[in-house]
Amino acid sequence: MKKFIAFMVVCALGLFGCSSTSLPDGVSQTFYDNGKAVVEIMDDYFANDVTAAKAADKVQKVLDKLSKEDVSDSIDNESILNVISKIQSNLSYVSEADESEVDSVNTDLEIATNGLRTALGLND
């Protein structure tokens, strides 16, 4: 009886507890994966684990990959690309900005990152 109950628990977890997250509507796997990578880069930046210049370089590499993708069939993929581009631009600016401007640009970066996180369904 214990083996049967254990078997049922494993089956229930397999069916309900470990289901994979589905992609947001209109977002391709490529844009999801790369968008998630940018969110992780930004999390490292906000935790002061990487400099703005290093984060800008990492995000630029993601942009280089995504620039080869066709976005004409998905407004969502295009929006993700635009947000990532804005993040990269702001990071590049912060890496050379005066100290007085950094807080303002970091606020913009937080807003853009949170928007990207929401678009990808990563708020959970």
TrEMBL record:
Signal peptide range: 1-24
Keywords on record: Signal
The organism's place on the tree of life at top rank: Bacteria
Name this protein carries in UniProt: Lipoprotein
Organism (species): Breznakia blatticola
